[in-house]
Design goal:
The protein is α+β, with helices and mostly antiparallel strands and about 325 residues long. The protein is about 40% helix and about 20% strand. It folds into 3 domains: about 90 residues, Rossmann fold (3-Layer(aba) Sandwich), CATH 3.40.50; about 110 residues, 2-Layer Sandwich (D-amino Acid Aminotransferase, Chain A, domain 1); about 60 residues, Dna Ligase, domain 1.
């Protein structure tokens, strides 16, 4: 598909989630890339006015760079579908499942995809019944995180009972349900997916051993090894798990799958990101670059896939 046939591209960024600032960074990087490619693009800072934005801006396709709730939970995708505007990335249901850590964990288990053990805590029940004993069932150390946040927001590693209670209180600040997950010591890996196929795996090395918000976006000592220095079998296993996880959730076009390799060499899937970061530090662009796909090409490919998906969907509808 020629770029001139893309029409006007609206880059949706910002949003009102806890990841607003990162989303703005991603959106601006994407917008600049599209302008450099000669596309007709407009940068749209979205808050709670998406319907007005769609109404007031004539766009032919939406590039979604909204991270976190609303952007990644299927909400904006549903609005765009109702407006009959093609959009980049996964559809409504896949987006909802991937952002919901409880739902995606169940999908992984249903599809035989290895993932760390976990329990789910409900805020009202926990504080009403003093459910701290349930929280100990996973053992310590443990990973505590909100059900519906990305970018490791609200995530903590609890090493003892006191820090576990603090981590639980912190996670409940972001929603009514949280996960307490088995802590797996090992190598942090991520596999980007492009055109529904795995890109080279990346290994992430952090100063404190935790890939949290600060390590992702602020710490200059965080290192990314591209491609990950793994044995061939382990490298291929990581890619296979990435592709399987992407498919199990029903994702399309692209995503990023985070996982960890334990000391025995077993790889466990942590989560799938349907709208990965597109900043200068982001992992999907790094993996694409290792596969020979430039940042600008990556952005235009997302749009091309969105338009092709809509065209194929329309053709299928007509033939029924």
């Amino acid at each position: 598909m020629k770029k001139k046939n893309f029409g006007r591209v609206g880059v949706f960024a910002g949003g009102s989630s806890n990841e607003r600032e990162i989303s703005l960074r991603s959106g601006k990087a994407v917008y600049n890339a599209l302008i450099q490619e000669g596309l007709d693009a407009v940068f749209l800072d979205v808050r709670d006015d998406i319907c007005d934005i769609i109404k007031n801006n004539r766009i032919d396709v939406a590039f979604i760079a909204l991270h976190g709730r609303f952007g990644e939970d299927g909400s904006v995708q549903k609005v765009l579908e109702e407006a009959q505007i093609p959009y980049t990335g996964s559809g409504v249901e896949a987006s909802r499942l991937a952002l919901d850590k409880v739902a995606s964990k169940q999908v992984f288990k249903d599809h035989g995809i290895p993932t760390p053990d976990y329990i789910v805590l409900d805020r009202d029940s926990f504080y009403a019944e003093g459910g701290i004993e349930d929280a100990y069932k996973i053992g310590l150390p443990a990973v505590v995180k909100p059900q519906l946040e990305g970018s490791s927001i609200g995530l903590s590693i609890a090493k003892d009972k006191h820090s576990l209670k603090e981590a639980i209180d912190k996670a409940f600040e972001y929603g009514d349900k949280i996960l307490i997950e088995e802590y797996v010591s090992g190598r942090e890996l991520t596999v980007g997916i492009l055109d529904d196929e795995p890109l080279p795996a990346i290994e992430i090395i952090t100063r404190k051993g935790v890939y949290d918000y600060k390590a992702k976006y602020d710490d200059p000592q965080t290192k990314y090894l591209v491609p990950a220095p793994l044995e061939k079998e382990a490298f291929q296993k990581a890619q296979s798990l990435g592709k399987r996880s992407h498919a199990a959730l029903g994702c399309r076009s692209f995503s990023r799958v985070d996982m960890i390799m334990d000391k025995s060499g077993d790889i466990l899937v942590l989560e799938v990101n349907t709208i990965p970061g597109m900043t200068e530090r982001s992992l999907l662009p790094k993996a694409a670059s290792a596969a020979g796909v430039t940042f600008n090409k990556l952005c235009t490919k997302f749009i091309e896939n969105a338009l092709n998906h809509t065209r194929e969907k329309n053709e299928t509808t007509k033939s029924v």
